Amino acid sequence: MEPNDTANDTASSSCLESTAFKVTLSVVLTILILITAAGNVVVCLAVGLNRRLRSLTNCFIVSLAITDLLLGLLVLPFSAIYQLSCRWSFGKVFCNIYISLDVMLCTASILNLFMISIDRYCAVTDPLRYPVLVTPGRVTISLVSIWVISITLSFLSIHLGWNSRNTTSEGHHTSPKCKFQVNEVYGLVDGLVTFYLPLLIMCVTYYRIFKIAREQARRINHISSWQAATIREHKATVTLAAVMGAFIVCWFPYFTTFVYRGLKGDDAINEVVEAVVLWLGYANSALNPILYAALNRDFRNAYQQLFCCRLAGRGSHETCLRFNNALLPKSQSQEPRRQEEKPLKLQVWSGTEATAPQGATDRPCLCPPECWFVELTIHSFIPLVRHSFANISQIPTTCQEPC
Length: 403
Prior knowledge:
With 403 residues, the protein is mainly α. The protein folds into two domains: 283 residues, Rhodopsin 7-helix transmembrane proteins (Rhopdopsin 7-helix transmembrane proteins, Up-down Bundle), CATH 1.20.1070.10; 60 residues, no CATH class. A two-stranded antiparallel ribbon has the order 1-2. β1 and β2 form a beta hairpin. The chain is globular, with a radius of gyration of 25 Å. The H2 subclass of histamine receptors mediates gastric acid secretion. The activity of this receptor is mediated by G proteins which activate adenylyl cyclase.
């Protein structure tokens, strides 16, 4: 990272001269920062307040949310000020810290996305061995590795000058610019480790997940309507397309220009183009809470519970309690009124209907293990296989039949 002597020549051309455009841009950047911070705060609150979300699977979701939250609080405000003022006003020491934080948090965010894809791949392709493959120790090692790689490519590399084109890591501060300097080796290594290899593996894993989801949708085609199976397959396609599409659209332009700068020189890319692709990458941190949390059914329920309780404090407290009880285990939420339960009509995957006996729980009747596996692969894509195995013993006797 190094401010350039030649940056003065292009500063006036790339700097914003139109007041109206500057105001519009400031509003857009402020909204993006607020969405990034608020969305990831909600993810952290949902996991903290809902016990069902405290699982090994969601450790990577929480790690991703914390990383993106730190990016929104520690990096994006300074990036916005720098972008709008067209000059760096915080000194060369903080310039090094700012760039290091930027590289570290963006790298950690991408590697968390990569680990989420690996976790889902293990859950969908080998659900029976998932509790053995994904253990607390391995999750801890994965999270530590993410941050070790991120710190190595950011603070350590910049402090030692591995990214610089000269012998020092400090720049010529003759112009008020704070620009990340990239040489050939650092550009190739960082681009390969941070983006291109994870992208390749994510494409393979999500393609395999999609194939399994489509096969499951076709497998149940003979027991459900053709339209229902088509809808499930369509939802699977849309979900995976959104996940991979957002990742590629947000980060591919940035890392392409990043590697090109390393090969051709720091001034090879126009500053306006650099700013656009950089903020496009930042936008991925605002989309992650939607793509990796809100698309999951348990997270959606937790969001509803969280906001319901906020609103119930102003209105009906009874409504909030009723919704909370619906999310609690049945032994906790329905024990007081168990004697008043009426026979419930339960829909099973085979297409037949069964009437539960008097006093049965109202837990959805799903035959293990194939039925909930279809539900996993087609609807949620956030694996809950370990949780499902833990609850197999609690399935009513009438459900413990072949699907």
